[in-house]
């Protein structure tokens, strides 16, 4: 009896496959479970994948071990540990924070024309306010002076009536002429009474363009302006009117009778009063210009000849008559006031220089206090100053103050 060979004998390859089959079975079982877990748990937003890490220990497959079809990952599919990534694919970065919003656009600014017009409108409004206040003050003065306007008319007519022949009177060529003349006189008297307030308002309009130190002179300048204006009107009334009116009345003769109308005399008198009032503002004007540093005493003295000429020209324009008497009576005070203005300017320049020197000394003392000189610095500076060669001017001044020192210097030379 022949023995049949046993086919159940295992070759070496079959033994290796049999030993590796438990491992392959475990891998095939774990791969679908991992894929199902990745599908069920999506990647959290903003979660950045970690860089690929090398495996802690490389497994060497057993000889003859062939991976099952399920063991090879599909293209683009990460491994079970999330370590692998398809080449050329950038990591998906999802940021759950809201994107930053752009800042709102700025409101449209004013145009260039508006920037230029705004200050002008403000100045115009300020000027209107000042003028309204001045008109209210004049109105109050008019109401106060109208109560005794008849007495004011008698005072205004007195310089003319004193030089006219006895029994002479003024005439009115129309019925309402006297009434309107009285109203105008009350208005002018109210303006003179309110002149301090009017000048104060005008200087307050100029004040915003001045420095803080210059604004301190606003009230003194306003009061001085009112005093000079009223003083000039009084000078014209008491000095100029008697001489001027007598000069006109003397031209009358046996064939000519002087019979002025009340309106013509009022116009002439008021024009002269205002003209002399404005002329007497010259010292105040020079004081203000010097305080601002626009003119100096040297400039005013240099301009003296032209000032005399301009005084006669202005007097010829302001006087209502072409005679030389009234022109001289107006040009003379203008020249005297100009000279007075030069002296005022000199005092202002002197005070400004003293104030400037005091400020410089205070600043130097402050700098010295902040940065004190080292010990022995003052004697060295004095010695260095003494050793410095003197100029001819300094030597001459030293000779005048100390003759003995000059003799010593000459002998040494």
Descriptive report:
The protein is mainly alpha-helical and 413 residues long. The chain has helices at 12-40, 112-145, 149-163, 177-193, 195-206, 212-215, 218-249, 262-279, 282-291, 297-302, 304-318, 324-370, 377-387, 392-401, 403-412. Helix 2 packs across helix 4. The chain is globular and about 90 Å long.
Which key features would you list for this structure?
mainly alpha; 0% strand; disordered N terminus
Topology at a glance:
Elements: H1 12-40, H2 112-145, H3 149-163, H4 177-193, H5 195-206, H6 212-215, H7 218-249, H8 262-279, H9 282-291, H10 297-302, H11 304-318, H12 324-370, H13 377-387, H14 392-401, H15 403-412
Helix pairs in contact: 2-4, 2-5, 3-4, 3-7, 4-8, 5-7, 7-8, 7-12, 9-12, 11-12, 14-15
Helix-strand makeup class:
mainly alpha
How does the overall form come out from the CA principal axes? Answer: globular
Radius of gyration: 55 Å
Helix coverage percent: 55-70%
H/E element string? Answer: HHHHHHHHHHHHHHH
User: Main beta sheet, described?
Assistant: none
Low-confidence stretches: 1-8, 39-64, 66-70, 72-90, 109-118, 403-413
Tell me how many strands there are.
Answer: 0
End-to-end gap? 163 Å
How confident is the prediction overall: mean pLDDT? 73
Number of helices: 15
Sheet-strand content, in percent, reads under 5%
